[in-house]
Amino acid sequence: MSLAVRIAQLNFVVGDLPGNARRIIDAARQAHADGVRLLLTPELALCGYAAEDLFLRPAFIDACDAALQTVAEGTADLAGLHIVVGHPSRVAPGKRERSVSVAGLHNAATVLCAGQVVARYAKRELPNYQVFDERRYFLPGNEPCVFAVSGDDGQPVRVGLLICEDAWFDTPAADAKAAGADILAVINASPFHAGKGGEREATMRQRAQATGLPLIYAHLVGGQDEIVFEGRSFVLAADGALAGRAISFEETLFDAAFTRQGSGWAIVADTDRAHSPEADLWHALVLGVRDYIGKNGFPGAILGLSGGIDSALVLAIAVDALGKDKVRAVMMPSPYTADISWIDARDMAARLGVRYDEVSIAPEFEAFKTSLGPLFEGRAEDTTEENIQARIRGTLLMALSNKFGAIVLTTGNKSEMATGYCTLYGDMAGGFAVIKDVVKTQVFKLARWRNAHDPFGTGADPIPDRIITRPPSAELRPDQTDQDSLPEYAVLDAIIERYMENDASPASIVAEGYAQADVDKVVRLIRINEYKRRQAPVGIRVTHRSFGKDWRYPITSKYRS
């Protein structure tokens, strides 16, 4: 006997309940026509992931209930097809008052067949770390869910259903097997970070081996605010061997055929290759930009193109995400801008075919100095004047954004965000921080990777080589370079990774061979610049710890590591 299973690896939109329901119905009707017997949708597909405090609104849950009924009614004539739909489900009286909030929901999956509910499962393991806040909204389930689906010969296949975090623990899968499961089906919304795809497959391999059951993993794809879901759904044999993998960072309908052979299963599915770390990172950034701008209805994007590596990288990402016609670059030279900066900026804009404008900030800069001169009398120029230049540029970009509706993409990287080498209301001014979670050393790697690859057909070798090879500089004073006051980036980024991402102590970082002075300086800069990061725009998370939802440090603190 054989069982045809399909994963609807689709890009659902948070809060678009009618649209999400329609997509599930359409996928179900196509699956039924193709002879599929089991259709899996991702975790919380019906409402989108993550709906955050929308889960606290009773009217939102009512709308989710109505959308589930819409899916049931829209698939009532699809005899023999079982559809797994992820959604929030009321199970207890929720309570939200001024001083009290008590969850009353399950993170649930309902199994529909011919318009009827045949099973319902509540997620048992609720993550409350990194970007997850599930215990704020949900109560844990405590029972396994196993339901039967008829194969092509009419014989039942018993499917054990799990939701995301459940499969990272032993007990839920073991309970499903004890309840008679023949295969495990896991629906997921697991945010991307570098290396996460391999971690998922390795953990699910352990789960398949521990239970002796094949496992099919249905994953969400798309961008939602600061997080990205990369798809890459897959299916494993009972011994943990990879039997098939869906494409990453794209919508797809991924099919797997399970054929019983004796006491085991033969599995047939297509397998997309695993990509390099730089390719995964590039596609994550592109998808994050495309969905943030597209789902929020912006007509396009605008950014300041300085002739430096960071803005060059953001421009290339934006064009890959949106196309050249929806991206505008503005060069805003100051008295300290080197000729090669505007030459390289013009060159890159021409290579990618975007609209390019040049607006000198020299008149505005002189006007500010004239206005402030009497107040600054007797004081030498310093970072004050440097910041004025950045704020003039921010004002110009925001004016263009207001006039034409395009969102401003900021171009600061994680190394700058960590150390505060960014200007409030200047280069931090904007709506979306594309490379906020990409350290400077990775910026260079991505630039070189993009010059060697053209994954979206928008132009080969888009970044002039001199932008990559010249010493980075903010060009806010004569002969300035970033390394005037920071450790070299290889050292800086290594310290940031250890201290900020991995919670290593300064002493342990020094013990690894890093200079005490460098460690002390970087740690101090991270600590004193929290107030800036609180005012930064949201940006795409691509590491396991970003300056976003999973970084919650007090601004006011006397603790010293």
Describe this structure as you would to a colleague.
With 561 residues, this protein is α/β, with parallel strands linked by helices. 36% of the residues lie in helices and 20% in strands. It has helices at 17-33, 58-74, 134-137, 170-178, 196-211, 277-295, 309-322, 339-352, 362-372, 383-404, 414-419, 440-452, 465-469, 489-501, 506-511, 516-528, 530-533, and strands at 2-9, 38-40, 82-90, 95-96, 101-102, 105-113, 116-122, 146-150, 156-163, 183-188, 215-219, 221-224, 227-230, 234-236, 242-245, 252-261, 264-269, 301-304, 327-331, 355-358, 407-410, 432-433. The strands form five sheets. The protein has a seven-stranded mixed β-sheet with strand order 7-6-3-2-1-16-17, covered by helices on one side. A six-stranded mixed β-sheet has the order 8-9-10-11-14-15, covered by helices on one side. Strand 12 (221-224) and strand 13 form a beta hairpin. Helix 6 crosses helix 7. The longest helix is centred in the C-terminal third of the chain and has 22 residues, at 383-404. The chain is elongated, with a radius of gyration of 26 Å. The mean pLDDT is 94.
Number-wise, the strands total: 22
Strand content: 15-25%
Largest sheet: 7 strands, mixed
Query: Which ranges are low-confidence, i.e. pLDDT below 50, for 5 or more consecutive residues?
Result: none
Proportion in helices = 25-40%
Q: Averaged pLDDT, please?
A: 94
So what's the overall shape?
Answer: elongated
Structural class: alpha/beta
Rg: 26 Å
Order of strands, main sheet, comes to: 7-6-3-2-1-16-17
Number of helices: 17
Tell me the distance between the termini: 62 Å
